[in-house]
Structure prediction request, 465 residues.
Amino acid sequence: MKTTMEALEGNRCKVTVTVESKEIDARIKKAYKDAAYKYNFPGFRKGKAPRPVIDNALGPETIRAQVTDDVINDTYPQSFEDVNLYPVGQLEPDPENGLVERGKDYTYVYEIDTKPEFELNSYDPVEVALPQHAATEGEIADQLDALTEHYYHYDPAPANTKVKADSTVSLKVAATDDKGENLPYVSEESMQYTIGSGLYPASFDEELMGLKKGDTKQFAIDVPEEPTAYTAGLNGKTEKIHLDIEVLSLLKKIKPELTDEWVKDTFGFETAAELRERVIESIEQQKEDIIPRLKENNCLRVLCERLEGEPPEDMVTDNESEILKDFFKRLQDQAITFDAYLMQAGIDATQFREDIKRQATDMAKEDLALDAVARNLGIEITEDDVVAEFEKSGASDPKALYEEWKNGGRLYLVRAGLARQKALDHVVENAVVTEYGDDAGEDDVKFVTDRSASKEDADKAAETE
Prediction:
């Protein structure tokens, strides 16, 4: 097989492929033989019908058209390899391509878009900000606070305390529908309720603002389109919920003091200082695991900002397909429906599609940016590099897998992946890093210590951390 490529305008190219007559003749012979066995031809035993009879029955160009399609489909992936092509999107065969003929080489032409070669506006070392490796006082305090938060209790607040956005109150609630009939699932003789928890609609919370112990209030709220825990099942049954509420008390959250005695009884450590050391170890272990990945991600973000050009839509579409394939496979493995996932994530199908689009676009930008870095550094991937990658794949037969990818015209993906990884390694290694601590602001990375509900759970967590 002989392949040549001609660059066209933009990132498009024209590829010409010639397949030798010897292979064409072999394919035609096999196609006729297969047809002779596949169909019944009157007067001939299975597999014995001659070519004229087959042509007369199926059409004079049917076999040639079939062989032509097979030749193109089988050989165009190999042509990518022959001319070192990184295709983007689908090929478009030349409508002037003819049909194969016995005893003649077959030449066909197709056009296809290729991956563009963009540049970066700077190849200087990237500058990134990362959390310092040591646990900061703020991180330690946050985690100790989270641990005590798990064991809080409530005490009554002073009588003159007023309800505000984060208050927890004890309420008596009587609820009726438009007909004045009691709504038992909304009514409570005594219930503990936290403003903003979502058990009632936001309009319910607004009516409570400024009330204090002993206050009563009557009001009505609309049944929300999106049901809450206390309004579920009311849509279509009543337009409004009529409420008569009494504030029994306001409650103040009390968290335990981090004393040696409490720490020993709750977590099994001898002292609060020992628990603090365990928290520090946990935070710093998480940082050790997370910071390298965070550094890579931040470096990639900077490179994408430097990219001069937008990825072609076909690259983005290909990435979307891969992301969706992996996503739905994970859902299937976890026995979760797509609707259930959307509900858990709190998004709708439109938001989901937009998220996937953003991910796919970011992936394409990262690839193009790393390609630019690889070219700038003169990174070259040898055949030995590619072979070694298959040997490291863990496949039972790396050589067979290599040949499969080669015949399928997919080795360009391996070469590109290796070059990008080398480029990323270089960028990460040479990045200028600024470490931040407790004053980092909104983008702080949170490191979470496992919370345990009992001494036994805490001991197990301490052993595995």
The domain at 2-114 is CATH 3.30.70.1050 (Alpha-Beta Plaits).
